[in-house]
Amino acid sequence: MKRLEIPGGGMPFTGDDLLWMSDGIYEAIVMLASKYAESFDGSGRGVVTGINTSLLGGTITLSSGWVILGGHLCYCHGWTGSGALHQYELYFDPVYDPAGNDVFADNISRDTYKIQRASVRPATIPVDNDPNILRL
């Protein structure tokens, strides 16, 4: 696990130090969550909690929950659609919170608050072999 060591003598503290610490915490959380994931093929991707499916009269309902896709812990808000389950997949779909759009010293606006999420879309590949995708 990543850990920031701060020796005596007035170490400068920068944004890179915060990134190092947050990366370490994130990696630890993903590792712990992956132990509880329902993994289908040993890739580490899978459902951590929620993501229950129901099919009633041709309508598919997917409850909200947490999944691991491509090594990323993602939240899925749930979904409703029609058809058959095998026609859809969860995929890694990060977005940015507009509150984190900041103007940097070079006068360029950049997004800084990334939200790791999973969304549902029609299946894109015939075989489920992409770690960023989980077939319903």
Layout of SSEs?
Blueprint: H1 15-34, E1 38-39, E2 46-50, E3 53-56, E4 59-62, E5 65-69, E6 72-76, E7 79-82, E8 88-92, E9 95-96, E10 101-103, E11 109-111, E12 114-115, E13 118-122, E14 133-135
Antiparallel strand pairs: 1-2, 2-5, 3-4, 4-7, 5-6, 8-13, 8-14, 9-12, 10-11
Model description:
The protein has 136 residues and is mostly beta strands. It contains one helix and 14 strands; from the N terminus they run H-E-E-E-E-E-E-E-E-E-E-E-E-E-E. The protein has a four-stranded antiparallel sheet with strand order 1-2-5-6. It has a three-stranded antiparallel sheet with strand order 3-4-7, with no helix packed on it. A three-stranded antiparallel sheet has the order 13-8-14, with no helix packed on it. Strand 1 (38-39) and strand 2 (46-50) form a beta hairpin.
